[in-house]
Amino acid sequence: MAGPSSHADIAAELATRPGAASLRATLVRWLLIAISLTFLGALLAAPLAAVFAMAIEQGWAAYFSSFADPDTRASIRLTLTTALVVVPLNTVFGITAAWCIAKFEFRGKSMLITLIDLPLAVSPVVSGLIYVLLFGANGWFGAWLQEHDISIVYALPGIVLATMFVTFPYVARELIPLMQQLGNDEEEAAITLGAGGWFTFFRVTLPRIRWGLLYGVILCNARAMGEFGAVSVVSGNIRGMTNTMPLQIEALYNEYNMVGAFAVASVLSLLAVITLIIKTLVEGRTGYRRR
Amino acid sequence: MRNAGQREPNVIPGFGITLGFTTFFLSAIVLLPLSALVLKAGGMDWSRFVDVIASPRAIASYRLSFGASLVAACVNMVFGFALAWTLVRYEFPGRKLVDAIIDMPFALPTAVSGIALTTIFAANGWIGQYLEPLGIQVAYTPIGITVALTLIGMPFVVRTVQPALQEVQRDLEDAAETLGAGRFYVFRRIIVPTVLPALLTGFTLAFARAVGEYGSVIFIAGNKYGYTEITPLLIIFKLEEFDYAGAAALGCVMLAISFVMLLAINLLQVWGRKRMMVSR
Question: Closest approach of chain B CAs to the CA of A225, in angstroms?
Fold first, then answer.
């Protein structure tokens, strides 16, 4: 039998089986559904609900006033700035990497793919640590940077670099399998008919990969705005200066300002929910599933 | 069909520039910083290096990080399989919604899931209040760490097992049942062997992610000396003391673990593909 089948096929086929409606099969079915849903409810739904419940525990006024705090506002600005730098750069990188990996055959290709995926395997804390070792006061470039009065660690550039590292593979990972699956035929036709490289990319390739690209960008953005471990190492946790939203959550939480902490958390959770909605829409459109 | 490349010249432009840009960016952002870590630790005095990575506190943290990650990955293997099975084989109200929220831990910031889990598993929390009378304390114990690691590892298992379950050859199951095999026998002899590589890959992915995890763990862990301190947290402590070399040494241990995990995942995937080919 060829290929994976859709859920509808499988369900329809299973229903025709003799014994599908027997008492035992029904019992097993509902038992498994119940176990799965309980597990998911306790582990996923409950924490998500708790975020919003805690955020509005003392009413909407308290909820909204937590965003009036200047440090919280600064953290939102910093997170947006970071994402605004990181996401476009990693998008350009992702498209470039996917183009050279999916369109051409060359030696060392699988090695290149492994290296691009490497940041996913590295602990977030190590991802931050490496930049401290490079640019920190005792780091490789530390003395030189101090001489020229440039601060990277405990400042915006360090936060951007660490975020770039952890979100590095996201766009490339979405695009590589998608572009490999689409093949080269249409681009070859366009080029043979005299179209230029840029024209071919924007008019032939981009329309076909736009949904996968959108999903990769959205996921990259969610991770960029939500990264905690790596950023916490390079940020120095200076309130109102180098605290991103996740770090501000930690600061507020540690001083028992629960409404404040969960209010900021609720914004990031909303972002996660929107990310998932877009992902579901994208999958519905392309029928393409990320593995 | 894809251009074979070797036979006919590839007419698509941009190979040199895209490969060059990719390699440059990769080296600048990923490879150079990672090598700084290795060189920093390599420049240490050997006995000092061993002192740092084999201190009792560090060893307690490895035991905790590995133990909790292992338990979490095992829990995920069981429940993740049940979830994948339910999603692939059954129809029930809300199935699409459940399928969509499986990816939640990928999208939800770790600090958010950390404080949320701590709140609901605290002694007065939504779930914690029912566990407390039973004498089970979750928050600020290794159990809590395991719960957090289970959460972040869950989608890895479900998302690797799901496509494998879809490929189980159901005519084979039907044939076996026609020949008198019971459901459990079919499960054990047909379904499990088919999805085993995917299940093990998912297990390893979840484990690898859990070992390095920081954000969702530190809130629920309580970070008690030698009891609920994970290895990444010790790196943070070293940095706070400006002991860069010590931090680099522990970072190297974590990096080595990452490489071993990557290797294991790649080998498992190769094995899985081979099995797939044989069974066709």
Answer: 8
